[in-house]
Amino acid sequence: MTLKQSQQALRASTATQGADARPPPLPVLVDYADLRALFGIKYSRVHIWRLARAGKFPPPVSLCDGGIRKAWRSQDVEAWVASLSYTNVVGNEPEAA
């Protein structure tokens, strides 16, 4: 399911079900464009690969045997985003009270 299809499904379900509608589930695998669109990850491709190689970002999975096309498991990316702290995102320590 592409981002456009997800957005259309969300609009359709919200229109028919009212305010109690849940957003559509995330796709199982996400590519680089989905990392930016769905998760707001604005790192370059090279930076993402460096983080993955260093063990600081979920490793990608190959979509075919020996293929170049890679994707990430959305649940792994969600867990990575949830594990980020304020200091990791902003890059400075919060002031002590």
Question: What's the helix and strand layout?
Answer:
Blueprint: H1 3-17, E1 29-30, H2 32-39, H3 45-53, E2 61-62, E3 70-73, H4 74-83, H5 86-90
Antiparallel strand pairs: 1-3, 2-3
Textual characterization of the structure:
The protein is mainly alpha-helical and 97 residues long. The protein has a domain at 24-84. The protein is 48% helix and 8% strand. The chain is built from five helices and three strands. A three-stranded antiparallel β-sheet has the order 1-3-2. The model has no long low-confidence stretch (mean pLDDT 78).
How far is it from the N-terminal to the C-terminal residue, by CA?
Answer: 46 Å
Structural class: mainly alpha
Strand content: 5-15%
What's the rounded overall pLDDT mean? 78
Short description:
It contains five helices and three strands, in the order H-E-H-H-E-E-H-H. It is mainly alpha-helical and 97 residues long.
Key phrases:
single chain, 97 residues, mainly alpha, three-stranded antiparallel β-sheet, globular
